[in-house]
Amino acid sequence: MKKVICSILTIVLVLGLIMPTSFAAPKDDYQKNLEEVMEEVEETNEEIEELIQEAIEDVEEVLSSDKNEKKQEKEIDKIIRKLVKETDKIAGKTIKNAAKMGITVVCEYVEVTIGNRTVLIDPLRVVSL
């Protein structure tokens, strides 16, 4: 009876020592991936913010020009389309890179006023922690 109890306790002790180390490695990789993704998301959001500022400056330049209102509206439309296209492209790239590492990143649309218009732009946010 003592041998059985000693054997069981030995097995439990060995498993207790082995199990925590076996779970530690993937968590370290996940943590490393998470940090990389969070850094990439931050860089992407900064890039999006720069693109927004450039678009605002471009629209202000158009509005201060002597062109008639129709031409101004067409140029503003063009600037906004370009902004949305570029931000969607870089956000999509970051989302794909994060997905490859097993981390979920989503776009969280915010309203940005550019000239006399409100546009939905997509800064990113990390979802799965």
Quick summary of this structure?
This protein is α+β, with helices and mostly antiparallel strands.
List the domain count as a whole number: 1
Assign an overall shape. Answer: rod-shaped
What's the order of the H and E elements? HHEEEE
Number of helical segments? 2
What proportion of the residues form beta strands (DSSP E)? 5-15%
Largest sheet, in brief, is: 2 strands, antiparallel
| Radius of gyration over all CA atoms, rounded | 26 Å
Mean pLDDT: 85
Helix content: over 70%
**What structural class should be given to the helix and strand makeup?**
alpha+beta
Low-pLDDT parts are none
Distance between the termini: 47 Å
How are strands sequenced across the largest beta sheet? Answer: 1-4
Number of strands: 4
In words, what does this structure look like?
The protein has 129 residues and is α+β, with helices and mostly antiparallel strands. The protein has one domain (27-126). The protein has two helices and four strands. It has helices spanning 2-63, 69-100, and strands spanning 105-107, 110-114, 117-121, 124-126. The strands form two sheets. Strands 1-4 form a two-stranded antiparallel sheet. Strands 2-3 form a two-stranded antiparallel sheet. Strand 2 (110-114) and strand 3 form a beta hairpin. Helix 1 packs antiparallel against helix 2 (69-100). The mean pLDDT is 85.
